Amino acid sequence: xxxxxxxxxxxxxxxxxxxxxxxxxxxxxxxxxxxxxxxxxxxxxxxxxxxxxxxxxxxxxxxxxxxxxxxxxxxxxxxxxxxxxxxxxxxxxxxxxxxxxxxxxxxxxxxxxxxxxxxxxxxxxxxxxxxxxxxxxxxxxxxxxxxxxxxxxxxxxxxxxxxxxxxxxxxxxxxxxxxxxxxxxxxxxxxxxxxxxxxxxxxxxxxxxxxxxxxxxxxxxxxxxxxxxxxxxxxxxxxxxxxxxxxxxxxxxxxxxxxxxxxxxxxxxxxxxxxxxxxxxxxxxxxxxxxxxxxxxxxxxxxxxxxxxxxxxxxxxxxxxxxxxxxxxxxxxxx
Length: 335
Ligand code: PEP
Ligand code: MN
Fold this sequence. Notes:
Layout: E1 2-5, H1 11-23, E2 27-32, E3 37-42, H2 50-55, E4 59-63, E5 83-85, E6 88-90, E7 96-100, H3 107-120, E8 124-126, H4 144-157, E9 161-164, E10 179-182, H5 190-197, E11 203-206, H6 213-225, E12 231-235, H7 253-260, E13 265-267, H8 269-273, H9 276-288, E14 293-297, H10 315-332
Parallel strand pairs: 7-8, 7-14, 8-9, 9-10, 10-11, 11-12, 12-13, 13-14
Antiparallel strand pairs: 1-3, 1-4, 2-3, 5-6
Helix pairs in contact: 3-4, 3-10, 5-6, 9-10
């Protein structure tokens, strides 16, 4: 349920209303937008007398929210959310670009790639330390040592780091990680989502291989229900019957999610296509359709990458993609 407040409502009045609603056992979210202040109510709103609420002096209108996702709902928070990440952000005017290798393989590899992606304009460094591999015999990542390497690269380049978590027990290792990634395979690992809801870390939540947008938003809701509202959504392609590409990039997810939610949405054209030469056209399309950023795999030696070499860009190609992306962003900018 949401209550839209009249213009000119004071902070003291909002606090009184909020306390009254909390006394009735509800969670209260206040969103002070550019046009209206919206009070979002989560919990058992059946016991709220909507007519009584609407009759209050400061309340303009009251609406029940039919969607099962509440905190993530655009109706709760009409303005775009901007997720702050250690000196940069995702959402709003910043086009975030998270770039780096699929997996952290060595200190030299990460340092070389980190310097190159920074020079090309990436805003964050990505790299997997814990890798969710289809085969248990494939490289599983450098784990804690991989995180140490990413932290060294962060120290040298100043780029915030993004890396995937697979087990909530590993959370202490992520203390200095700037954005914690939940991979496609863990999008519905609800116990992990609940643990992440107890932190205040920015979470990059990737869409599952065969999940609907509603399910993605419900997973975001799990994290938000715990009090962590710092969520970045990522479309990374879904399973279809197509086999020429690794997945099928659902670009319509971007404008659809922007309608449904205030959370920023980025595109991962690397995992979506699985083919390095398709990354540029899909990155440009993502920029054109309003994505808030990109996640791109970059490797200094793709042919010898321990994971996902076929979809990894060289630093030079990445720089070219960045340049072209900036041109598209400029061309579609709303004045
Ligand atoms: C990744 O980003 O390295 C990754 C494993 O992605 P996804 O979860 O989208 O497959
Ligand atoms: Mn990968």
